[in-house]
User: Fold these one by one.
Assistant:
Number 1:
Amino acid sequence: DGGITQSPKYLFRKEGQNVTLSCEQNLNHDAMYWYRQDPGQGLRLIYYSQIVNDFQKGDIAEGYSVSREKKESFPLTVTSAQKNPTAFYLCASSRRKGVTDTQYFGPGTRLTVL
Amino acid sequence: ELKVEQNPLFLSMQEGKNYTIYCNYSTTSDRLYWYRQDPGKSLESLFVLLSNGAVKQEGRLMASLDTKARLSTLHITAAVHDLSATYFCAGASGNTPLVFGKGTRLSVIA
């Protein structure tokens, strides 16, 4: 089955630690995205990537980092510089950014800082 | 900069009733998406609207787009409990990423 997988489903982090959230897709999509969702809020874009080895900052990139070494993988690292990282993180992909292709979302990772 | 506003943010409806969720956007958006999110779950794509006057329907949900008014609507007909969820609209223009509204939390009650 084609789709987007995210792991882990739940993640607990101590203050001062970096953690990495995994996102993998087997849809052969070019573009991938990371969003953050806080309770009762919409989605805010953290980073996106249109092609391998290239990515752009979204609206709230501070305290986060990404890499895109493979087309199917787009991991997100939440660094200790992110002051309030507790949130629901969603990864998405689409065939190409900037055209009419729909974004498809993974199941999400819920990150809690202890 | 594109801004997307939804209203209402919370909606409680009785089963069998009709209602409309509104999505206004601030600048030109050449495509408009509607997504559904169940509690604790991810987003599921419902509709993509690409042109003025576009109308799409799936079951009890119908979405429309008026680009002149910069307005999209999601109409719910004869609501049932299974439609309880949060509904998001999102717009984009040209090469820009999607901009999401804050969502409308719909609760259908007996």
Note: Chain B has no helices and eleven strands.
Number 2:
Amino acid sequence: QVQLVESGGGVVQPGRSLRLSCEASKFNFNLFGMHWVRQAPGKGLEWVAVIWFDETKTYYADSVKGRFTISRDNSKNTLYLHMTNLRPDDSAVYYCARGGVQLWIPDFWGQGSLVTVSS
Amino acid sequence: QSALTQPASVSGSPGQSITISCTGTSSDIGLYDLVSWYQQFPGKAPKLIIYEVSKWPSGITDRFSGSKSGTTASLTISGLQPEDEADYFCCSLADNRVVFGGGTKLYVL
């Protein structure tokens, strides 16, 4: 069964940076696009970004464009989300999710990593 | 405000059927057959239950079914069971981004 394990979350002050990681296993990571999706406490899901299997394309939500960068290291089966200039409204559980057979449909999700932006 | 509109809550009794609607626009649901639905329990990650409007991932019960008409997608759960009580989110492709509905809390009374 596909496994995705996020790490790197924590409490960070506004304006600071943080990098999340997502380690993938039990599937051919280098053949699938990957997403980051976040969920503020008690709120709905908000898509953050997607990266193509070969890193040739990336797309972002308007709310994070210019501040967040999605990347991957296929040799390490790992997805990243580098977040800069963090704001309190970036506080959320961040999930990594595999783009399925159809890239734009996340199929398997990790358990999430909580990011809290607070002074 | 979410890009796709879902009712905040729906309820039903065990054995009944319920339908959750998901309204979008001609730029998302109306344009692509890439609607998916997710089930989420408190404190857990979302789980894909319907993809490409009406297809089932492996291991998902056919009590869940999906459809689409114009700019509105629907999830129907038949033969409601207490364990179906959860949050349900719709999702669609829209112009090189993914959009979600605000979520619907299903109560099984």
Note: The two ends of chain B are 28 Å apart (CA to CA).
